[in-house]
Amino acid sequence: MNQTTRYLQSVAGQEDIEVAVLVNYLLFDAIKAGASDIHIEPWESTLVVRLRLNGVLNELVHLPLDLMEKISGRLKVMANLISYVTDVPQEGHAPANPELGGVELRISVFPTVRGEKIVIRIFDPSNRSFDLGTLGFEDETLKAFKALLARPNGLILLTGPTGSGKTTAMYSALYHLVQRSGPTISISTVEDPVEFHLPMISQAQVNLAKEFTYPVALRSLMRQDPQVIMVGEIRDAETAAIAVQAGLTGHLVMSTIHSGSTAGVFARLINMDIEPFLLASSISGVIGLRLIRKNCMLRDAILKKMPTRALQQIAVQQGMHSLWQAGLHRVIAGLTTLEEVLRAVSTDQT
Hints:
Helix content: 25-40%
Number of strands: 12
Oligomer: single chain
Strand content: 15-25%
């Protein structure tokens, strides 16, 4: 049973529910489950809360519809949004909170005919690794990607639907460049929004309210002497033209673009009035990304009725610490004695 359900069962009635406490429990459950997003949405008769786990939405709890405005108001306060406005979309950012394990939240509120739908994107800086080698690329693909990153100029485009890992791949590529070149390389980004703060990289966030758009930022950035430029997304012809030109004039440029297929990227850019000969000269590579769920080796081994010793070896490979290992760590730390560990745990429990 999740903490949210336990809390709801512990209160006498709906009027005794503290919304701030309820919201915290929703966030705790999502973080503990390793969710990337929380969807809070009014349905016909309930306010449903779903978690996106490994790309798939799973129901967490159904709440009374009467709580919708209170939960929305609480989340708006956390993200510094206008709490009394309910008929227009709003987006905001809740900074890292030690009470929530240091995660950051990006909160999006969208009006629907039944009320406001809220989607919370969870960012856990302590649980994100930007290592190209751990993203699951095939060896040949990874080698080709690194070869593209070794070039001094050109345009690298990543394509795929929302949530397919494009930003993570670009951040990992930038981190790879920083590891390779250290302080000898100048890297700048223009993003909407900046999702993670990367070391030794100058990151900027567009601000439409102040007319700080992708094209405006890129034009100014070209005078900042960057060697590598990362553009969060190519959305319009003007941004596309500047990115192509930058790739032709001695800059290594990375960006994302939405397209139905990898080959379709070229048609999309041509439809933005970019000349084909410019695309042929500037684009170094196009990478299509999708996220897929991996099989659980331990689960498959159980289904195959593998021997206990084989199951244990697989578990250790997956990061399990045996009772014997845990006991020895406590002996080394001076918390107990070897005799006590030998009394409680047999040596074959390794």
